[in-house]
Amino acid sequence: MKRIEVKLSLTVVAPLLDLMKDSADVLQAQIAAPLTLDDIDADFRDEWRAELLAGQQEELSALMGLFNSDFYENAVVAFDEDNAEIIVRACSALRLRLRRHDLRRLGDEQLEGGGIDVETLPEPLRKPFMCYLFLATIQELIIQHLDGAILKGPAGEMSDEDGDDDDDATGDEGGDREGA
Amino acid sequence: MRFEFARTGVAPEEVAESETALAVSGPWKVVVLNDPVNSMSYVVLVFRKVFGFDETIARRHMLEVHEQGRSVVWSGLREKAEFYAFTLQQWHLTAVLESDETH
């Protein structure tokens, strides 16, 4: 099994963990990404939301579980085929939360441009921004080294009892429904 | 993940009738909207994982989302569209369903 171990700086990461924990706690009851369910049957919306939330809770539990007492002894976190997908998703959820709450004063262009100097940020934004970058770094490490494991796992496909004649994954170069 | 709840409490004949109605009413589109948080590499990974796109196609959709604000990543019957929208939302992408009225 492919496995990567990452040695972190305790002095850098430990101060971020409280914020990560606080954000994860909020996300126990709140979906991280904006959710538009207007086109979903009203009868299903609550269940839809509940199932999303349950998955998100599981992801965050896995991520925060990396920073247990062992972490404080050796400062190492490990990623492998078993946890790669769930951790990369948890990072996404936490980053979305940080963006919408702690970093809401920053513009999209600033964040997407990646040219922010932490030292120039107001003090209250520094830790959230460091946290935001830290989680992105974890994601990139996993995607760089374990994307094969994630892609190899169970695919996001449902059983196709209808056959494929009536649907169109728009990856088909010949598809005519592609584009917005 | 299985989208198990979609049929809870619905009688088989009602499902059959509903599916017929949806098939007749035309396909639904699964649309991914841009967000300023998820990285390009993450979005590409998600598209490859969920739809089985190759790298080139996944990147093209990712860039469409990034540059145009949205990309239609799938279209077809309502039930499967719901499944894909739900799966994308599990990956924390902003995915919505739209009726393909032009079809």
Helix and strand arrangement:
The complex is a heterodimer of chains A (180) and B (103).
Chain A: E1 3-7, H1 10-26, H2 42-65, H3 69-74, E2 76-80, H4 84-100, H5 108-113, H6 123-152, E3 168-169
Antiparallel strand pairs in A: 1-2
Helix pairs in contact in A: 1-2, 1-6, 2-4, 4-6
Chain B: H1 12-25, E1 28-33, H2 40-51, H3 55-68, E2 70-76, H4 78-90, E3 94-99
Antiparallel strand pairs in B: 1-2, 1-3
Helix pairs in contact in B: 2-3
Largest sheet of chain A: 2 strands, antiparallel
CA-based gyration radius of chain B: 15 Å
Reading the helices and strands of chain B in chain order gives HEHHEHE
Output the radius of gyration of chain A.
19 Å
Number of strands of chain A: 3
Q: In DSSP terms, counting alpha (H) and pi (I) runs of 4 or more, how many helices of chain B? A: 4
What portion of residues of chain A belong to β-strands? Answer: 5-15%
Which range best describes the helical content of chain B: under 10%, 10-25%, 25-40%, 40-55%, 55-70% or over 70%?
A: 40-55%
Q: Summarize the amount of helix of chain A as a percent range.
A: 55-70%
Report the mean per-residue pLDDT of chain A as an integer.
Answer: 87
Task: Tell me about this structure.
The complex is a heterodimer of chains A (180) and B (103). Chain A has 180 residues and is mainly α. Chain A has one domain (3-27, 57-178). In chain A, 56% of the residues lie in helices and 7% in strands. Chain A is built from 6 helices and 3 strands; from the N terminus they run βαααβαααβ. Chain A has helices at 10-26, 42-65, 69-74, 84-100, 108-113, 123-152; strands spanning 3-7, 76-80, 168-169. Chain B is an alpha+beta fold. At the A-B interface, helix 2, helix 4, helix 5, helix 6 and strand 3 of A face strand 1, helix 2, helix 3, strand 2 and helix 4 of B.
